[in-house]
Design goal:
- It is a single chain.
- This protein is of the alpha/beta class.
- The chain is built from 16 helices and 16 strands.
- α5 packs across α6 and α6 packs parallel to α7.
- The longest helix is centred in the middle third of the chain and has 19 residues.
- The chain is globular.
């Protein structure tokens, strides 16, 4: 006999179905359904309809949330850019930044990514799994059920594989969906004897074959920036990865413009950061399937300008917002808070902000998520309020009271 669970009643329910992937959105474009319920059978959404009708037709279903009529429900969120596989802390980096040092100055003096590389290399795979699961649990508490996780703090064969294996192990121990991305090209490690191009060749010739052999990642990333990798060597590296069947995303335009053009020309699934994307580069996203991913957590952590999200939308981009959760530049990890602050700064409508952390973020990962629809695995999050807009109005202070993933229900 199938297990049936009826969730509701919901004052407001939104599915995000029928909205376009690209360009601006008006709040009146969003369909808000009133007094609805969701019937879940065997972990999948089987019906979305009037709560009273569902209650009448499925009288033997297990009831969840009944009796509370001040609830809204929406698709679970997607965080399409994180670095939550790491060991150690970077508190000293933060203290130096607020004392006036720049990100690039700190990195040049031995802090930054290299500091986390040293700490992650000394962290066991088992410990990394535990740390990932702790951070995933925090994300589920925030209504996030689909999470991209990058490597990039190993920067040698053994430790990059260790990170990706830890992500794979963690994925098998959580109901959330964890999507691994190979970021061996984060920076050239200090202990590598050779040029930046030599290091990229080392990744292609030695690390990538092992990743493919063990099925550890289908996505790859590279950091295009001063102190990391240049535009032309990055273009060559990306081309080789594409030939090997990888989907490509790129860290670009965080401190200098130019990298986003490469990402678009190379047909990358996303171009992430974009704080210094100029007007000319913004226009390149028109008619492009490369998702523009804003990372306001990094802007907050570094005390720098935000991604020009409004200009990107007006140029016709598919805009996503992600946390960039990492130990250095973006340690907060709170997607709703960051998206709300970016929305206020860049004048994003409620529906533009919501689209950026649901189905548009899912498109950056090329996965089916961020839309609540019949037949799909149940992935939704519930807030105790009678108005969807309240979630962003409170800028992250209103937390979900429930997150559902399949047959699992997390209540808070």
């Amino acid at each position: 006999m199938k297990t049936k669970t009826l969730y509701g009643p919901f004052k407001e329910l939104i599915t995000m179905e029928g909205l376009p992937l690209h360009g601006p959105l008006k709040d009146e474009d969003l369909t808000v359904f009133k007094n609805q319920g969701i019937l879940v059978e065997e972990g999948r959404v089987s019906e979305i309809d009037s709560y009273n009708l569902l209650l009448q037709n499925h009288s033997k279903a297990e009831l969840r949330l009944s009796g509370n009529e001040e609830l809204v429900v929406l698709p679970a969120f997607v965080d399409c850019h994180t670095h939550i596989c790491w060991g150690g802390k970077r508190i000293n980096d933060y203290a130096l930044r607020v004392a006036g040092k720049t990100y690039l100055e700190i990195a040049a003096s031995g802090g930054g990514i290299s500091d986390t590389v040293n700490q992650t290399r000394s962290t066991s795979q088992k410990e990394l799994v535990e740390l990932i699961l702790k951070r995933v649990k925090a994300h589920i508490r925030r209504g996030i059920t689909t999470i991209e996780i990058k490597s990039g703090y190993g920067l040698n064969l053994d430790d990059e594989l260790k990170m990706l294996k830890a992500i794979k192990d963690a994925n098998e121990k959580t109901s959330a969906t964890l999507i691994p991305t190979f970021l061996g090209a984060h920076i050239k490690p200090k202990d590598f004897d050779g040029t930046h191009s030599d290091y990229l060749d080392f990744l292609i010739e030695n690390v990538v074959p092992e990743i493919k052999k063990h099925g550890l990642a289908k996505r790859a990333d590279i950091f295009v920036e001063e102190g990391a990798f240049g535009i032309e060597e990055s273009r060559e590296y990306v081309g080789k990865l594409k030939q090997l069947g990888f989907e490509i995303t790129m860290h670009v335009d965080q401190f200098h413009s130019g990298g986003s053009k490469v990402a678009i020309e190379e047909g990358c699934v996303s171009a992430d950061h974009l704080e210094y994307t100029d007007d000319e580069s913004c226009t390149l996203f028109n008619n492009s399937d490369t998702v523009a991913v804003a990372l306001p957590g990094a802007s907050l952590g570094l005390g720098m300008q935000y991604t020009p999200a409004r200009k990107l939308l007006e140029a016709g981009a598919c805009l996503a917002i992600a946390t960039d959760w990492n130990p250095g530049s973006a340690p907060m990890g709170d997607l709703i808070t960051q998206a709300s602050i970016l929305g206020a700064s860049e004048k994003l409508t409620i529906v533009e902000t919501l689209a950026a952390i649901t189905f548009r973020a899912a498109h950056a990962l090329r996965v089916d998520a961020g839309i609540l629809k019949i037949g799909d695995q149940a992935k939704f999050t519930v807030f105790e309020t009678n108005d969807i807009r309240d979630i962003f109005y409170q800028q992250g202070q209103l937390k979900p009271c429930m997150t559902v993933i399949g047959e699992q229900c997390f209540e808070y």
